Amino acid sequence: MAIETKIQLKDVHKAFGRKKVLNGVFLSVEKGQSLVVIGGSGTGKSVMIKCVLGIIESDSGSIQIDGEETRGAIGKKRDAFLNKFGMLFQGSALFDSLPVWKNVAFKLIQAKHLPAKEAKDVAVETLAQVGLAPDVADLFPAELSGGMQKRVALARAIAAKPEIIFFDEPTTGLDPIMADVINELIVKCVKNLGATTISITHDMASARKIADRVAMIHEGKIIWHGRKDEIDHSGNPYVEQFIHGRGEGPIKMQIKRD
Amino acid sequence: MNSNLSSLAHNVQTRLLGLLQLLGGTFLTFVEATGQFAFFTLRAISHVFRPPLYFRQISRQFVDIGYYCLPVVGLTTLFSGMVLALQSYTGFSRYAGGAESAIANVVVISITRELGPVMAGLMVAGRIGASIAAELGTMRVTEQVDALTTLSTHPVKYLIVPRILAGVLMLPLLVAVGDVIGVFGGFLISVYRLDFNAANYIDQTWKFLETIDVVSGLVKASVFGFVVTLMGCYFGFNSKGGAQGVGAATTNAVVSSSILILILNYFLTGLFFGAK
Prior knowledge:
The structure holds two protein chains of two kinds. By secondary structure, chain A is of the alpha/beta class. Chain A has nine helices and ten strands.
C-alpha cells in the first residue's frame, strides 16, 4: 500500500509584528501516524498547529491536508476541512456554560445536527471510553477536577470521530500518574479511530509514550525529525540538550518575550 | 563654545525626532485600531445575513437583554419621570398659570425623546456591555473561542450575532416599556404630590405627544443597543493576556459605549429634529 501523506507543511512563515515565530516550517505526517513536536516554550509549537487549523493566518508557504491546499480556504471548503479535525486544548477549553455531555456532543449537535437524545447517547458512550461514569454527563465543567476536565476535553475531541487530532500539551498541569493515564487514553483512542495526530509537548515521558515519530522545533524551524527510537542517539546537540533537560547547551533560554 | 552649541542643536534635533516618532506612532496605532474595528463591525453585520443562525443562542440573549434588564431600566425611568415632574413644577410655578399642562408636556417629551433611550442605553451598557465583554474575554483567553472553531462552529455566528441581534431588537422594546413607566412616574408626582387633576394630566399628555417623539426614541434605542453589544463583543473578542486583559476589555467596553451613546444621541437628535 502506498504511503499517504495526510498533513504537509511547506515553508510556512508567520510573524507577529517584527517577531518571526515560524521561520520556514517543513513537516509532513503520514496517514495514521502519531507525530510529537517537542520544543521549548515560545518556540512556535502552538502557533504552528493554529496555523494549520487556520485559527491564526500564516503569512506564506503551503499547508495541505489530504493533498488539498487549506491556506485561505473559506466557506464550504473550510467547513469540510474543519470537519476532519478534533483538538485537545492545553487548558481543556471546555464551555463552562454547558453541562459535560453538551460539551462532548457539541460538534454533533451544532454542526451535524444530531437530535439531543442521540447526541447524549454518543456523549455518554464517549465518556465511557475515557473512563468517566455516565453520571458525570450532567455535571458542569467547573465541578470537575483538572484531570477529569482533561478527560472530558479528550472525549470532546474524539466524539465526532475526526480523521486528524491535535493535542496541545495534553499532560501539562497534571500529576505524573494522571499524566500517564491521559497518555494511555490518547494512545488507545487514537488507535481505535485510526486517526492521524500531531501532539505538541515539552513533557518527554508523554512524547515517548504517544509518538511514532518526533520532530523538534527551535526558533520557528524544524531542526530535527526522526523515529521515536532514534531520539536517544540523534547526534543533534539541540535535541540532546532538550531531552536531557540541561540548562547548558546550544539552546539559550529567552527570559523575556519580545 | 562652538561645540557646546552644536551639541545643543543635536540634542534639540533628537528630541524633535523623538516627538515626531511618538506622534507618528500614535497616529499609526489609531489608524490601525480604527481599521480593525471597522473590519470587525462589517464582519459581524455580514454574518447576521448568512445562515446558519443559532436560534437557541439568540433566544437566550433576547431573554438576557429584554427581560433581565427590565427592573433596572424600569427603576431609572420611573425616577427620571418623577424628578422631571418635581423639577419642572418648581421651575414653571414661577410663571402664572400653565404649570399643569407644561409639566405633562415636559415629562412626556423628555422621557420619550431623550431620557428613555439614553438612560436605558447607559444602564444596558453597564449591565450587558460589561457582561458580554467579560464573558467573551474569558472565553478568548481560555481558548474557548478557538475550541469553537475546531468544533466546526463559527465563533462570530455563535457568539456575536445573537448578542448584536438581541441588542438591536430588544432595546427598543425595553425603552417602550421604560417610556410608559417614566410617564407614569411623572403622573404619580403630579397627581399625588402636586395635587393636579389626574384625568386632565393624562389628557394633556396625549395631546402633546406626537408619533415622531416615540419613534425617534425607539430608533435611538436600537442604535444604542447595537453600540453596546458591538463594543462588548469587540473588546471581549479581542482581549488578551488573562485576568488583567479581561478587566481592561470590560472597562473599555463600558466606557466607550457610554461615550458613544452620548455622542450619537446628539447627532441622532440633530437628524430627527435639527431641520425644524
